[in-house]
Amino acid sequence: MIDDGIIAAIASGYVESAIGIIRVSGKNSIELLKKIFYPKKNTFEPYKIYHGFLKDSNQKIVDEVLVSVFKSPHSYTGEDSFEINCHGGLLIMQNVLDLVLKNGARLALPGEFTKRAFLNDKIDLLQANAIVNLIKAKTQKALDIAFGQLLKKNTTIIEELREKIIFLMAENEVLIDHPDEDLSDVDLNKRLLILNEITKLIQKLLKFSEKGKYFFEGVNVAIIGKPNVGKSSLLNELTGHNRAIVTDIPGTTTDIVSETLNLNGIPIKILDTAGIRKHSNKIEYLGIKKSHEAIDEADIIIAVFDSSRILDKNDEDILNIIKNKKNVLIVLNKSDLKRKLLLPLNIDPIEISCTKKTGINTLKSRLYNMLIEDYNESEVVSLNTSQIIALKSALKHAKKIKKAYIDSLDPALISIDLQQLADYIEQIIGKIENEDILDNVFKNFCVGK
Amino acid sequence: MYIYPKKYDCIVIGGGHAGCEAALICARLKLNTLLITISVDTIGAMSCNPAIGGLAKGHLVKEVDIFGGEMARNIDETGLQFKILNKSKGPAVWSSRAQADMPAYRLRMKHTLEHQDYLDVKQANVEEIVIEDGKIKGVITHIGNEFLCDALIIATGTFLKGKIFIGLNEFHAGRAWEPPADKLSESLAKAGLVIGRLKTGTTPRLDGRTIDFDALEPQMGDDEPIPFSFKTKNFNPPNYPCYLTYTNTKTHEVIRENLDKSPLYSGMIHGIGTRYCPSIEDKVVKFPDRERHQIFLEPQDANSNEIYADGLNTSLDYEVQVKYLRTIKGLEKVEIIRPGYAIEYDFVNPIQLKHTLETKKIRGLFLAGQINGTSGYEEAAAQGMVAGINAAMYLLEKPPFILARDEAYTGVMIDDLVTKGVKEPYRIFTSRAEYRLLLREDNTHLRLAEKSYEYGLIDKVHYEEIQEHIKKVNEAINILKTTYAMPSIDFNKRLESINTKPIKTKVSLSKILARPEINYSLLQTIVPDLPLLNKIQMQQTEIEIKYEGYINLQKQQIEKFKKLESIVIPEDFDYDKVAGLSAEIRTRLKEIMPKTLGQAMRIPGMTPVAIQIISIFIHKKHVQSKPA
């Protein structure tokens, strides 16, 4: 077997649905399962479904799931394998997949499960043709999804990135292979400059993919504030639903209520949190704890204050929470009542009234503007997990190269580092062949005799 | 027709760098060998620059040396100046180069051939190859003599339909004014080989008496020269200077004004030239902002005044050559002895060859050197060596001799040639080798001795000498890694005495040697009981320890590479039965018939999907053939 190892993929497809299925296959895959899955009992019989929790290495629960286990050779691939049925949110599926990948699996290539099934005689030879077509189709689709947006709208970034990496590789090769030449135009500053540009391009791609995430996966917005400032009312106003319980008894919302809103095409998940205050009962305490978690995970925070009352200790706590955060919108509710609240001067609040339904549109447009700040359509890319990991590794590696340049490390070693950088992002910029480097050498450097 | 009564095991056509190595190796393996050349006076001739070695080329010379070839010994005996290039960089990319005494080199090579047992040398122009039942049978010369053989190695360099250009003048010639081999090329085409056309060029040779050397910067060789051959002992070569000068804006002006008199720019030359050896006119056109280009004036011969102007390869008109040369500092009054010229010649695209350099079409027919679209003496010699060994293995019915990409630069080059083919003259570079850190010049004979011995290409004495060397280095490395220094006051004082930081905890000696400021002999001054090593052994020990991280990384990459190389594509693999391959890829695959999945991956234009598909079919075949 050439493609050994445990492979994993989201089998249900990368779309929001009720249930997500993560398929994992390979020798020792059951051992992997035992590391992450916590059912009532830890012995697995094939063809049974187990209920339990997936936990990460910090014992934090990732999801509550159902797992079916298949033993070789009686599985789809013919190998030991298992399938996780998790909740079908994109984020959850991604987290579950990441957990599996972190524990020793690798992302399956397109059609690889079927390929293994074929190689293990699980599928008839007559089906070979169909499988080949399937692999081709799947690869094409994967490419379309991964590169579709990149190639259509961001060719310049990708090309620039590729060109600059090839240039550095070529320049390094010139130093090695043409020591007799007059190379006055090769200098440290120029290299550091280009390396810096490479870093910036990678960061740009990552940033664009963050934005892409908004469009494909949605944004989490958390509404926070002390009890009874009207968070649930705001949620209802924003979404136009009437789901959160609205009473004037402080602390009514003890669990997190979430609603989705389509804001000019951006899917937004709004989380209404329990009011944050001191001196509360145990149930409320749990709610508050969850609120803090929601704040950490939110892309944008809406902090609500009651403009009809003076600033108290609980409000100050809220101000402290958001103090160093940039992704915050501050809302003064109950603007229909007489204003008593005084906020620090540097805050630019949005005044609304949930009862009179005023200011809601202003809030929506401020929220939208914040999301699409310096956004233009060509700056949205969709990268998959492995591409993002690759870009991040490349960034880290660029730092190593910078140090190597500054320390004037042997070019023969630098070439290995540059190759590594290219390898990391090969799936985004395309494979760099020796010919590409030589082309660049003879295009940009006057060498050879 | 006269059929020569002595039947040869192997015939080699051509007495250049490929032909000489091929013939010598066959004869040294005790096969009856005949070398046929158009002129025995030009055996071992250097048609272009008077130097052997250089970046990556030095590696090839040393590889030829360990596998029983002659090039390294020949230059060690006849060199005028020896130098290690890249000395300011790390040892992984150090490369040997020597200036050669061209006639001395040539005569020593001729002398070696003439004194080799099992080898005959004859002057003749081969016009036809004889094939019977898809196997080589012999050759026919221009006067109608037939020589019989079981294996044939063709190493004709630029002689196949050679055509020379100087300005707008053109004439048929194989090298300078020697006759070309026109009919042989047609015979090869008739045998079914696809012939292409390439171009290369050379520089004017100048009269040294008319050069003002005093005005120029001399460039000397190393004070402590290192020989190419591991067999060379008591090395004491001369150290002749080269001289550095530059073109200037005036030179460029003259060239620019006269481009219409260049066969390259007037469209007379159809062959594809190499970017690696651009002509001076190319450099001026492509890099208009450059105010000067370097020229090295190199001696060609200890006994003559002829000087080679390296960096001035040209096919411009004679008049223009005279004019622009005289704009250059030191060359104001220069006289040309021989003008520079461009040469166009036929070649056989090497995708028609196996890794053994045997043609896929005709059993027993091997091609080596410039006929395969390469340039350079060293590239030619390395191919001659591989073709010679494989012709011998073929005749002896032994397994083929193939060097892998992770073993030798020769392996890299041949895999490139047979997998990617040639569009412009191919030159080796260190960047073509994926595992540069391991394939160093200094350890060439250490890496390859085992294989050489296995094929009977080095004798026992030399083999054991090399094994002893390897043992010493390994022992030293082992001691350094397993001996620990304690942070005692005494030891830290000793560290300070060699200007390096004290240690705070127990540390292995290898960690101390790994510090940039430390080398083996320095460490030896404070740890006197380290094993005694010679200079090269010390250097190798240092490399292994200082570069350990990178070396391990390359070793891991090699493991990955080997995995793919180990997946053999059966020779009878039918790409027409593999569904899902594009027509273009299918054609390429059928043309190249890669031996392994790894090689298939290196074919230009190959896609990951195609590789997946092929691997599925290989595995399926494998699975099916297993008993149930």
Q: Could you explain how this protein is built, in words?
A:
The complex is a heterodimer of chains A (449) and B (628). Chain A is an alpha/beta fold. In chain A, 46% of the residues lie in helices and 17% in strands. Chain A folds into three domains: 6-130, Probable tRNA modification gtpase trme, domain 1 (Gyrase A, domain 2); 154-210 and 386-444, Up-down Bundle (Four Helix Bundle (Hemerythrin (Met), subunit A)), CATH 1.20.120.430; 218-371, P-loop containing nucleotide triphosphate hydrolases (Rossmann fold). Chain A has helices at residues 29-36, 90-102, 112-119, 128-153, 155-177, 188-217, 231-239, 282-297, 313-322, 360-371, 385-406, 411-424, 426-429, 434-444; strands at residues 6-10, 19-25, 37-39, 49-55, 61-70, 81-87, 105-107, 219-224, 257-263, 266-272, 300-306, 328-333, 350-351. In chain A, strands 3-4-5-6-2-1-7 form a seven-stranded mixed beta sheet. A six-stranded mixed beta sheet of chain A has the order 9-10-8-11-12-13, sandwiched between helices. Mean pLDDT of chain A is 80; it is low at 138-152. Chain B is an alpha+beta fold and 628 residues long. Chain B folds into three domains: 2-199 and 345-454, FAD/NAD(P)-binding domain (3-Layer(bba) Sandwich); 460-558, Arc Repressor Mutant, subunit A; 567-625, GidA associated domain, C-terminal subdomain (DNA polymerase, domain 1), CATH 1.10.150.570. Helices cover 36% and strands 18% of the residues of chain B. Chain B has 20 helices and 23 strands. In chain B, strands 1, 2, 3, 7, 8, 9, 10 and 21 form an eight-stranded mixed beta sheet that branches. The radius of gyration of chain B is 26 Å and the shape is globular.
